[in-house]
């Protein structure tokens, strides 16, 4: 298989996280992918460096990692955390380091949009998928038989 780049769809990115998916450490996995003109150009799947205390925190950490990649190149609860200026008691413990993504959003350097689980391409990097979804997301990365 190879990656096919076609059209002029520009740069788009997806990020996702499982929650406490590593059975031994209970660390979550971050996954993200960026596509240019329909084909994947950069991606990552990696265990997070900290133990997330909620799905929101795991997603926020993943969004921060993806944002770092997006900035280097020129993704419901985590999006609320990014797009609102309110700091809640439950989110206070999140390391300041991860507020990087919020700063980039406020400065209009990135945009954040909800992507339903049926269209969440980054799922391929964070969890086992049934064959149909795996094939759909693999194809969405621009991978095809040459």
Compact description:
This protein is of the alpha+beta class.
Give structural notes.
The protein has helices spanning about 55-75, 75-85, 100-105, 130-140, and strands at about 1-5, 10-15, 30-35, 40-45, 145. The protein is an alpha+beta fold and about 150 residues long. The chain has one domain (about 1-145): Nucleotidyltransferase, domain 5, CATH 3.30.420.10. The strands form 2 sheets. It has a 3-stranded antiparallel beta sheet with strand order 2-3-4, with helices on one face. α1 (about 55-75) packs across α2 (about 75-85) and α1 crosses α3. It is globular. The N and C termini lie close together (about 5 Å). The mean pLDDT is about 85.
Largest sheet: 3 strands, antiparallel
Number of domains: 1
Report mean pLDDT, rounded to a whole number.
Answer: 87
In CATH, the homologous superfamily goes by the name Ribonuclease H-like superfamily/Ribonuclease H
CATH C-level label: Alpha Beta
Q: Which geometry do the CA atoms define?
A: globular
Order of helices and strands: EEEEHHHHE
Helix content: 25-40%
| Assembly status | single chain
Number of beta-strand segments:
5
List the helices and strands and how they pair.
Blueprint (H helix, E strand, L loop, with lengths): L1 E2 L7 E7 L11 E8 L2 E9 L7 H19 L3 H7 L16 H7 L24 H10 L2 E2 L2
Antiparallel strand pairs: 1-5, 2-3, 3-4
Helix pairs in contact: 1-2, 1-3
């Amino acid at each position: 298989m190879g990656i096919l780049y076609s059209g002029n769809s520009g740069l788009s990115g997806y990020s996702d996280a499982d929650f406490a998916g590593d059975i031994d450490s209970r660390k979550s996995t971050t996954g993200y992918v960026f596509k240019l003109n329909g084909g994947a150009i950069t991606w990552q799947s990696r265990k997070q460096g900290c133990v997330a205390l909620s799905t929101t925190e795991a997603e926020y950490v993943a969004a921060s990692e993806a944002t770092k990649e997006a900035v280097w190149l020129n993704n419901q609860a985590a999006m609320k955390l990014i797009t609102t200026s309110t700091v809640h008691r439950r989110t206070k413990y999140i390391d300041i380091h991860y507020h990087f993504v919020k700063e980039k959003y406020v400065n209009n350097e990135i945009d954040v949009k909800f992507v339903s689980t049926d269209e969440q391409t980054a799922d391929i990097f964070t969890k086992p998928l049934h064959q149909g979804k795996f094939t759909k997301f693999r194809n969405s990365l621009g991978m095809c038989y040459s």
